[in-house]
Amino acid sequence: MPEIRYRTTWTPFDDEMRQALLRPTPGPIYYDGPEGEAFEREMAAYLGTAHGVAVSSGTAALFVALMALGISPGDEVIVPANSYISPAECAINVGAQPVYCDVLESTANMDITNIEPLVNSHTRAIVVVHTYGHPVDMDPLMELARRRGIYVIEDVAHALGGEYKGRKLGTIGDIGFTSFARKCVTVVGQGGMVLTSNPEWARRMVQHRRHGWNRGDVYRGTVSLVGFNFTLNECQAAVGRVSLARLDRHNAARAENARRYAQGLTRRELPAQPFQVMPWARHGWLHFVVRVPRRDKLLEFLEARGIQCEIHYRRPVYREPAFTARTGDPGPRPVTERLVEEILTLPSHPEMGEGIDYVMDQMAEFYVRG
Q: Is residue 183 among the annotated active site residues?
């Protein structure tokens, strides 16, 4: 196998992060302590929400959010058809039915014209994923949600720091959440956080996170509900605080990479089509994704030249046998099913540098060869 020079995934770990990781190791508190609480405060302040609840993964974040909102059997949760497995998985695991919404050709995001026909009397929540970092058009979606009494949960794992019409993503819906696993902010490993300005929901999420105990209870104190063990450890929280302080700088570097890709692909006349960026959007740019012909062959060609690309996402979750066995076949989602045959995520992390040109030069060689 060739040595991989450029990867889509990027998890920095330098001396400042190493020192932060070691800071809590003398103990005696290893989770749910001062580093985690500081990380929650700093993330909430960055976004402009009142509360942050740190948990063990992005999936755990969505799960406790659904639990705090009381989503339960008989309810329906609208999720993107083109998405990671977690939104549908969490809906199923709280007993609800995921309803898969097709996406737009232009941005790969959910759209109100696709969402509204799916809403019925059982619809309790919409999980909005700002796919690849581009914001969903939130105003018409929020108008529908308020009119029909539906909760909106924003997944900003691809888009932390992004904005919709000047408002930070993750603060427009009722609850926002993110992952820290190789995302815009990293904790070196799994981690996540839920953000809300509703104190009651925040309290419930804290209880669900740690065995039903309230924050501040004496260890193994009064159990308020049947919860889980979804805590984020203190070492990871300390690393996350360092990473959060770098978020805007890293996002600016990713935005510059995207600009260079867009210009360079056009200049080389490559048959690679990036998604559109709407005028009201401040893109998070976790992923730079293009639609390309002969995608799988190009993927192999680039890997042979030291370029590791990915596909976000190769197979729709509603086509996974384990999911159709639980929730049935929803039928075709035409845009999603076209996208999964064409999309390719190119390396675009903040340390790419001149690697951007190398990637495009190799793509040009592939298509020139025919």
A: yes
